[in-house]
């Protein structure tokens, strides 16, 4: 078994060694994936877009019908304690980490789908050192395929970030078997939705387009940032229905996520995008996003 990257986790309000037992086998998160989560970047001990991630987590919790059990201030403090314990909160050189907040409905020894009444949620915060995108991803770009799975945008759990990840695992296995890096999902009527852990962007001329929220995609915080800040890289944004032909005809295609940032895609289902190399506007978007994260972390560390 690989040793955890961090020596601690934050579990239900306190730091505990990461190599100790943490959860009961009766926890509903383990038993049936009955939970939600958020993953975000932290730099200089500052969780990036914390308010946006927590707002999305509360929407997910409301949809799933249970409560967090801690307020947002407790979670912020827990992240700070965990990063400090690992030494990943340094100002210079800046500490960089990936953080995951996981909330399950908690312990329940019954076998009921809905579970018993009066349970208490399990809340865990984990962190990993973050080294940035790999040199290969930036120099060579990512290859994606289209998953055979079709996602229904009318589903009431579309856009909810649950711990039930079976569809995503299956799609990544599809990609691996095809020699690709990731997979994207379509709706039943053929609209582009999202990738397994990222939103999808395409660039044509000076327009950066992304599927609209009505396709059932997860409303990513980096996607929202791009809609507001694409002008920093000389681009205009558009939210619209996109289809595979739009991807094939794009000058550039990219994936974006909170932790990985903006990453170039060079091929979809084996068809090269543009000249088959990472596009300059995609890389400019990535650089603009990374500059913004650095500025936010400096400002946040000064306020702390």
Describe what this molecule looks like in 3D.
The chain has 304 residues and is α+β, with helices and mostly antiparallel strands. It is 30% helix and 28% strand. It has helices spanning 28-32, 50-64, 72-86, 135-140, 166-177, 221-229, 244-249, 280-303, and strands spanning 8-11, 14-17, 35-43, 46-47, 96-104, 122-129, 142-150, 182-186, 192-195, 199-204, 207-211, 236-240, 252-257, 261-268, 271-272. Strands 7, 8, 9, 10, 11, 12, 13, 14 and 15 form a nine-stranded mixed beta sheet that branches. The chain has a six-stranded antiparallel beta sheet with strand order 2-1-6-5-3-4. The radius of gyration is 20 Å and the shape is globular.
Describe this structure in a few short sentences:
With 304 residues, the chain is α+β, with helices and mostly antiparallel strands.
If classified by CATH, what would the architecture of the largest domain be?
Alpha-Beta Barrel
CATH class of the largest domain: Alpha Beta
* Count of discrete domains: 2
The topology string of helices and strands comes to EEHEEHHEEHEHEEEEHEHEEEH
β-strand amount: 25-35%
Q: CATH superfamily membership of the largest domain, which one?
A: D-amino Acid Aminotransferase, subunit A, domain 2
Q: In CATH terms, what is the fold-level topology of the largest domain?
A: D-amino Acid Aminotransferase, Chain A, domain 2
The helical percent reads: 25-40%
Structural class: alpha+beta
Mean pLDDT: 95
Which shape, going by the Cα principal axes?
globular
**Rg of Cα set:** 20 Å
Low-pLDDT runs: none
């Amino acid at each position: 078994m690989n040793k955890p990257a961090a020596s601690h986790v934050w579990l239900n309000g306190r730091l505990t060694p990461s190599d100790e037992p943490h959860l009961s086998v009766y926890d509903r998160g383990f038993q049936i994936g009955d939970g939600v989560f958020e993953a975000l970047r932290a730099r200089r001990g500052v969780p990036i877009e914390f308010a946006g991630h927590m707002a999305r987590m509360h929407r997910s919790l409301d949809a799933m019908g249970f409560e967090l059990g801690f307020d947002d201030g407790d979670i912020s403090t827990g992240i700070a304690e965990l990063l400090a314990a690992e030494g990943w909160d340094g100002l210079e050189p800046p500490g960089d980490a990936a953080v995951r907040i996981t909330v399950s409905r908690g312990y329940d020894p019954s076998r009921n789908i809905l579970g018993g009444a009066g349970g208490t949620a399990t809340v865990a915060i984990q962190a990993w050192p973050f080294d940035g995108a790999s040199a290969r991803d930036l120099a060579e770009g990512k290859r994606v395929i289209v998953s055979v799975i079709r996602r229904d945008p009318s589903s009431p759990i579309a856009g909810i970030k649950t711990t039930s990840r079976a569809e995503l695992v299956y799609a990544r296995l599809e990609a691996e078997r095809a020699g690709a890096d990731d997979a994207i999902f379509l709706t039943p009527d053929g609209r582009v939705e999202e990738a397994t852990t990222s939103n999808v962007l395409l660039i044509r001329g000076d327009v950066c387009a992304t599927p609209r929220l009505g396709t059932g995609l997860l409303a990513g915080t980096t996607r929202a940032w791009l809609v507001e800040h694409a002008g920093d890289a000389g681009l205009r944004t558009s939210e619209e229905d996109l289809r595979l032909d739009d991807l094939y005809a794009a000058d550039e295609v990219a994936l974006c996520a909170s932790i990985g940032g903006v990453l170039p895609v060079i091929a979809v289902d084996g068809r090269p995008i543009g000249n088959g190399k990472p596009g300059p506007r995609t890389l400019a978007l990535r650089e603009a996003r990374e500059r913004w994260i650095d500025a936010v972390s400096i400002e946040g560390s000064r306020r702390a």
